[in-house]
Amino acid sequence: MAGQATEFKIGRTVDLANWDAKKHVCRGRTRRDLELNKYLELVRAKMCDIHNMLIRENKIVNPSIMKMLFLGNGEKPKMIVEVFRETNEKRKEEFERGDIVFAIYQRWTRCADYLEEFFKFNNNTLDIPINASSGYIS
Question: What distance in Å separates the CA atoms of residue 126 and residue 84, rounded to the nearest whole number?
Fold first, then answer.
């Protein structure tokens, strides 16, 4: 990644007289300037999270990939219930082959249903992503 760069707009503007080019922050003290600095810090934090995620998953790290993920154009995150249901398709094949009994297959499917109910009751959603930044799975 050394020597590589990419640029993208964050949809914010600043008066050049208030911009500190060394620190990459706004020098102004108005509410708008302070909000801009907070937003810039959030952007930096998200970029760090994306970088760390790519490192953890042994994926290629470069500015264009990080930009794509930041802007939401990356791959869709894996979801817990979705992965469970994919696994249940394998269990269904095992059941149909006679490798497992119906009760075991039924336990797997019920578990996915219960997870979905749990997420709906506690998080008001049917599924959550499997990643460290979600705060659920690390």
Answer: 13
Residue spans of beta strands (DSSP E) within 18-131? 19-20, 25-26
Please list, residue by residue across 28-42, b when 16 or more beta carbons sit within 10 angstroms of its beta carbon and e when fewer do: beeeebeebbeebee
C-beta of residue 12 within 8 angstroms of C-beta of residue 36: yes
pLDDT in tens, the chain (138 residues): 457 788 888 889 998 999 999 999 999 899 999 999 999 999 999 999 999 988 888 878 888 888 888 888 766 667 889 899 999 999 999 999 999 999 999 999 999 999 999 988 888 888 887 764 444 443
Using alpha carbons, select from 81, 80, 83, 49 the residue that is nearest to residue 66.
49
Residues 6 or more apart whose CB falls under 8 angstroms from that of 62 comprise 1, 4
